[in-house]
Amino acid sequence: MDKNIKKQLNNNSPLCFDAVVIGAGHAGCESALALARTGHKTAIITLDKNGVAFLACNPSIGGTAKGHLVCEVDALGGQMGINADKTTLQLRMLNMGKGPAVHSLRAQVDKHAYHDNMLETLLNQENLTFIEDEATDIEKQDNKVCAVKTRNGLNIKTNAVVVTTGVYLNSRTIIGEEIKDSGPSGFKNAKGLTESLEKIGYTIRRFKTGTPPRLEKHSIDYKQFEVQKGDNNIQTFSFLTKKANRNTHVCYLGYTTLKTKQIILDNLARAPMYSGVIVGTGPRYCPSIETKIVRFSDKDTHQIFLEPESARSDEIYLQGMSTSMPKDIQDQMVASVNGLENAEIVRYGYAIEYDCIDPLGIFPTLESKFVKGLFTAGQINGTSGYEEAAAQGLLAGINAHLYLSGQKQLILTRDSSYLGVLVDDLTMKGTIEPYRMMTSRAEYRLLLRQDNADARLTQIGRDVGLVSDERYSAFVKKMANIEKIKQKCKMMIKPSEVLDKYLISVGETPAPNGLTIENLVKRSKVEPYSAVKSLGLLKGFKKQELISALTEIKYQGYIAMERQLIEREKKLEEKRLDADMDYTLIKGLRKEAAEKLNQIKPLTIAEAGRISGVNPADITVLLMSFNNKK
Amino acid sequence: MMKNNTNTIVAISTPLSSGAISIVRMSGANAVEIADKVFKTKSGKIPSEFQARMMMLGTFSASEFSEQAMCVVFKAPNSYTGEDVVEFQCHGGVQITKGILATLIKNGARLATPGEFTKQAFINGKMALSDAEGMMDMINAQSDAEIRAGYNLLSGNLSKCAFDAQNELVDILSELEVSFDYPEETIEYITKNNAKERLKKLHQKIEDVLKTSSAGQMIKNGVNVAIVGKPNVGKSSLLNRLLGDEKAIVTPIAGTTRDIIEGSFSINGLRFNLYDTAGIHETDDQIEKIGVDKAKNIIKSADIILFVKDTKEESDEDKKVKNLLETHKHIKLINKADKLKNYKNNGDILYVSAINGTGIESLTQKLYDMACEDKQMEGGLTIANQRHIDALTRACSSIHDAIDNIDNFTLDLITIDLNMAYSALGEITGNTTSEEIIDAIFSKFCLGK
pLDDT tens digits, residue range A337-393? Predict the structure, then answer.
């Protein structure tokens, strides 16, 4: 137990914190840091310090849409991007050929170093106290959260609580017939809190996820696999990271075989997924290998990747073979892959079931609809993924801070960020499976790029007090330089042989009268950054500044189109609705719509329009009866 | 990359076709600018030069017609919606009013969604809560009419087209999206060429439907009325009576039916085409048989059948005709009322005299009502229908943009065009969420770690 707490308890003085964060996973860490950094005396309760920021599944951060979330966390002043950059083993930019909207960073990270670094950050954070214990009860008074009780008998008085229990709530792990009352990776699970949440008013759900086996590094025949290298000279997650990325490790690509398929089909009766043992709802985008083989029976082989877990361990993550088959079957399945004939399984794959809440019970601020000052973030809200969790954790932390300081809470709109899309989807539509961020969920994708995450969010982070002077002045400088670049792009490039040669080399027609940089960049076959580099234009600017500015010039037309759509929505977004409104009292509203609105309690008319079951005619009625409070 | 994506809205604000005057209202930042392109007074003044709130007489010019009309400009914020508003008042009648609407849309306005003027007024703070509540019943009535309109034959073709087109778009989009969200899978990703081919086909399909949409046909070609009856019951004189002074505007319609159409006349601005038939009796005469077959076809494709007799008695042929009537909208007429002594109009049978004009007015009223039946609905359907055409047109042009741009731009940008098309179609089908695309991705592809 923490020395300070011991002292307080010995003095018989009640334990008091401004805020308590329950759980120290990716969501909890961001929440706790945000609260402590904005000056609130914060306690973070975790079952086991070794589980802090633990990468329980794949040893990687980012990927499609998730990379965007990490950049957004960073732009708002969060920790995930900095930590991922520090612990990167390999970095890749996905979707390079498909356009700026969908470029996505993905890092293989060292999972032990990631945990160590985050733990160190928390321990060194002023205002933050660690409590190794299990939260069992959340108490309220006058409809405001007031205390958290623990298994060891602590009664912590507090004004704000952020619950980030991840997959630990009443969790059980399943490997074939072997079912354990346990958290992920052999960690202890949490009990008791579910009942408390239910009492508060949340609807409790049961979701499921899973993980593949880990292999011993030296028992693999790598010759049978295709090497996958990282990309050099690409941006990192954090706008603060100055060093270029490292690529010290590689991944490998291989395939399952017909034999693998046969082993699984022969043993389906023993698969918990199909024998009725698993009752939780799993994600469609992260199916187990047995699900893939059953659902897509025409496919004979499936891709698998070998990913390093850490520079200091011999464990290899077998991506693509998530399974909850019995151990003896897992042995056979792994051995059926070319190159894994002699592979040794260090840890078996398993499925894990856990309790979470229906996110229709929370506002887009992530605050509870039932009790003031109570926030939830991460997997408890029905999402999956480290990045989704961290982003929500940060938002919950920011809003708990704003709540404690009596300020208006932050709602991120769909046109501001992927985080805005995520929270809006969760709280307006709910989710029936673990929710994963995808680029297809964002309608203003071209505006929500990784490269402009800071332009979209850093000012917000600054306003709430999370963006340091160092970060902020770098940001202001970058914005100014982007403006400068845009101005300079109006300049003419004189006709020259070099220019024509370049144009012809990329398949464009020459420019005998010269052209402006703007028009050069806008030509369809010209890749802006490499063009200005090849022609020696716009010297003295940083690569990130150039990429942001030139992207905006090149895609001006489409960007304008997306902005127009946003404008249309904006007016309705500004019409705020009263959270206590009873919609059944509104004349002319259809019954179904009124019920849905009463359940979800949208905060703006635009939100109401996105609820399934509320049609345009209902919105008109709502507009008509809307009392314009100014 | 010019986009026709304006926020200037337009709609017909009087019930279509019946009144003497129709009003077309346009609101938004570009309203006056658009009006300048189509309206001019005799002295050459255009709306931007008009004094606000002053009604001006002039000519409304479209590519197919020009029409005398009144125009009044309201400058923001002193207007119903709080934005610039231009109103056109013209002679009532479906074609002219529709023509004005279509012309304004062509020049950059967008068809207003139901209640959108009121919504705009409210958003701009022009309407207090109490006023707004008064409007509510009206808005509800309109959307009810729209729901009913959804089932109407007239719009059926268009909405089916929208559903099919959206399904195909979801399919294409899901294939594009899967390549963004799952770039490392062993699946066959869609190629630009493949996407382009499929989009071209889709574009063609929508265009075809737009061209031949039955809604457009009714407005362009009028309501088809077949006159059925034995010889000598006075069909010709009835025909002449109905055509009356309107004979001057008789316009033969191109196609195989040209030799049978007798003429067109209009009621309240809606055009009716009269078709005479030779009767449908059994015959062995080859030439006559061709005529009978033709008559049967006319009856099949007619919107309304006028069944003319001169007595209440029924011949064998009459009985055959009656079978046909069961599946058609029809009016039973007894002609030569001038020669009858005692008759009484009842709901089923209408007594008319082509010679002295008795009952002709009731007949035209009944024809008009019947044509507009389940299409009128206080302006609901015609608007719903035009709304469908408008949405399909926008979808069509977004798909066209995508086809144009696909070779020169990256696929993430192409999805912007396609999503615009998708959401335009969603205005008809009601499917507007990205969830459908995501569902399609997961049902089609084997994905995930």
Answer: 999 999 999 999 999 999 999 999 999 999 999 999 999 999 999 999 999 999 999
Report the CATH superfamily, name and number, of domain A574-625. Answer: GidA associated domain, C-terminal subdomain (1.10.150.570)
Position B350 in a domain:
yes
Task: State how far residue A333 is from chain B, nearest Cα, in angstroms.
Answer: 16
Domain ranges of chain A: 15-210+354-464, 214-350, 474-560, 574-625
Residues of B in contact with A578 (CB under 8 A): none
Domain containing residue B247: 222-367
Residues of A in contact with B114 (CB under 8 A): 616-617, 620
Stretch (H or E) spanning A18: strand A15-22
CATH number at residue B340: 3.40.50.300
**Cβ–Cβ below 8 Å for A58 and B409:** no
Asked if the Cβ–Cβ distance from B419 to A443 is below 8 Å, we say yes
CA distances to A1, A549, B299, B362, B369 from B238, in Å: 104, 75, 18, 14, 19
Q: Tell me the two tokens of residue B305.
A: 């059948």
Together in a domain, B184 and B313: no
Contact A620 B186 (CB under 8 A): no
Determine which of B118, B178, B180, B189 to mutate to test the interface with A (most A C-beta atoms within 10 Å). Answer: B180
Does the distance separating the beta carbons of B185 and A588 come in below 8 Å? no
C-alpha span between B227 and B279 (Å, rounded): 9
Which residue of A lies nearest to B137 if distances are taken between CA atoms? A588
B210 and B228 in a single domain? The answer is no
Q: Specify whether the CB–CB gap between B202 and B169 falls below 8 A.
A: yes
Hey, what amino acid is at A456? Answer: R
Contacts of B415 in chain A (CB under 8 A): 445
Q: Determine how β-strand A303-308 pairs with β-strand A315-319.
A: antiparallel
Q: pTM to 2 decimals?
A: 0.72
Q: Is B209 or A91 the better-scoring residue by pLDDT? A: A91
How many CB pairs below 8 A link A and B? 154
Whether the predicted interface score ipTM is above 0.95: no
Asked if B114 and A617 count as a contact pair (C-beta separation under 8 A), the reply is: yes
The correct answer on CATH 3.40.50.720 for the domain covering A15-210+354-464 is no
- Classify residue B137: in a domain, yes or no: no
Beta carbons within 8 Å of A141's beta carbon, 6+ residues apart: none
Strand blocks (E) in A495-606: 515-516
Do the domain assignments include residue B74?
yes
Q: Are residues B79 and B25 in the same domain?
A: yes
Is the CATH number of domain A214-350 2.40.30.260?
Answer: yes
Residue A624 is nearest to which of B122, B411, B447, comparing CB atoms?
Answer: B122
For residue A8, pLDDT beyond 70 = no
Q: Check CB contact under 8 Å for A439 and B180.
A: yes
B176 and B227 fall within a common domain? no
Cβ neighbour number for residue B13 with a 10 Å cutoff = 15
The CATH number that applies at residue B171 is 1.20.120.430
The alpha carbon of A507 is separated from its chain's Cα centroid by a whole number of angstroms, namely 40
Name the fold adopted by A474-560: Arc Repressor Mutant, subunit A (1.10.10)
Q: Classify residue B63 as exposed, middle or buried by CB count within 10 Å of its CB (0-12, 13-18, 19+).
A: exposed
At A220, list the tokens: 């693999």
Do B201 and B235 share a domain, yes or no?
A: no
Higher local confidence (pLDDT), A356 or A627: A356
- Name the domain count of chain B: 3
Integer CA distances (angstroms), A437 to A497, A501, A520, A580, in order: 48, 43, 35, 30
C-alpha B94/C-alpha B412 separation (Å) is 43
pLDDT digits (tens, 9 = 90+) for B43-64: 999 999 999 888 888 999 987 7
Of A440, A587, A625, the CB nearest to B180: A440
List CB contacts (< 8 A) between B192 and chain A: none
